[in-house]
Amino acid sequence: MRDASAYLAGLRDGREVWYRGERVEDVTTHPELGIAARHGALDFELAHDPAVKDLAITDGYSTFFALPRSAADLRRRSSLIEASTAHGKTLVVLLKEIGSDALFALLRVTHGTEYNDRVQAFYEHCRDNDLALATAQTDVKGDRSKGPSAQNDPDLYVRIVERREDGIVVTGAKVHTSCTPNVDEIIVIPTRALAEGEEDWAVAFAVPVATPGVKLLCSDYLHGADDPWTQPISSQHKMIETLTIFDNVFVPWDRVFLAGDTRRAGQLALTFVEYHRFTAVSYKLPLLDALIGLSVALAEANGIARASHVRDKLTWLIGYAETVRGLTHMAAERCRIDEATGIAYPDPLTTNIAKWTFARDYQEAVKHVIDIAGGLLVTGPGGPDWRSPELRPLLEKYYAGALPGAERLALLNLASDLLARNYAGYQSVLAVHAEGSLEAEKLMIWRSYDAQPARAYARALAGLDS
Ligand SMILES: Cc1cc2nc3c(=O)[nH]c(=O)nc-3n(C[C@H](O)[C@H](O)[C@H](O)COP(=O)(O)OP(=O)(O)OC[C@H]3O[C@@H](n4cnc5c(N)ncnc54)[C@H](O)[C@@H]3O)c2cc1C
Fold first, then answer.
1. What is the reported pLDDT for 16?
2. Dihedral of CA 325/326/327/333: which sign?
3. What number does the ligand 1 atom closest to the CA of 136 have?
4. Residue 350 sits in which domain range?
5. What is the pLDDT of residues 128-168, one digit of tens each?
6. Ligand 1: which of 218, 433, 443, 444 to mutate, judged by most atoms within 8 Å of the beta carbon?
7. Is there a domain that residue 289 lies in?
8. Is 221 in the same domain as 345?
9. Residues of the chain with pLDDT under 50
């Protein structure tokens, strides 16, 4: 298994990455993208950390690539995702998490097809070389009321523009793709179900990031988080999303996992999401624990720990976090086994209820912690003032609460980073949209729940035939 330095060395390969209008020569040494690369390296440090090593390695390979066969395997995977996110100080690392979600889905959906041997070979390549992977599912999508073939511009969903003897050529763009500048390979899968006549858009493949024609235009949303005192998390941890453009990219057949099968395109989109929402709820848990801990610590710092309204808010936060945790564990316990492959997957109904519960109530949770913290979240002092020998004694004197000023401000800065500054905005949108929007989760809950037994019970209670 690779260590952090081997992983970072692999990223210096001439990939086409753009940040704030400029081409980036080396993503590992760039002042901002380098933070994302070092954050990504955490997934590689796990296997060398005595505290998590046993969890991080399974049969000599990264546990992330271990095919789940049982509820216990899914629980183990969930625990590892939780542990790696805790190392990332509430920010998911996602270098092996999302890619393995896609690999499991590909192995299941292509079972029994001509593509399966290629997927198996690619899976082994990723596992044996301990690769970092991005998964580009979300297309730019254009007019949401129209499918790919009805768009004014056919490139708004990634599509096959040429079929050759040695492979295919693809064009189009995916969006919001996490970690792309600092991974080895990009796995591309369809976003949605497709209709007959949309064969060109029914495409799944994988390419190394440095493939000619792959252009990564990075979001700079977290730009400027450069003060470790006021931004203790976001100055050291970052995930970069890209507009991932495929400009006539050649993909050899051994890397093509779907080409023209519209039925399997929809299956693949959904099967990936079955795993990915389980990954999502697993990685949310450290953030929810942090919100509870921060509320307790801030209440102490402000001298309001015994107030009844604070206890009420803390109880709400505990109930929220433990509901998401309980549902996550239950999704593993209620897992299903795919008959054809023997690969386990988390129960879709429970997974979607877990993800929906998290996303639906996240803003409410943030509101409670902001309430306990007070207005200093947006009016507090900056790092240069704190570091000024002349001003610091004043800040320590006037910002003291039930705890010394230095401690209270450290907690408030953490809260400000998590709840009020740019990183807070990032977490807030991540909560609602990443791994599918709220409506997508509700749709899956509706589809997964069999209402017939409940209906029959109600009719029987009313004295009616079922
Ligand atoms: C921080 C972050 C990281 C992400 N990382 C990744 C990643 O690594 N890989 C990846 O593939 N994706 C990634 N995503 C994308 C994520 O899955 C999408 O944001 C999500 O699926 C919503 O898609 P969208 O952003 O295009 O919004 P939209 O789909 O445009 O949603 C906006 C609203 O429109 C509604 N809507 C959309 N279509 C319809 C319709 N046909 N009818 C009615 N209502 C509709 C939605 O329900 C929602 O209310 C990431 C997103 C974020 C925010």
1. 98
2. positive
3. 11
4. 301-456
5. 999 999 999 999 999 999 999 999 999 999 999 999 999 99
6. 433
7. no
8. no
9. none
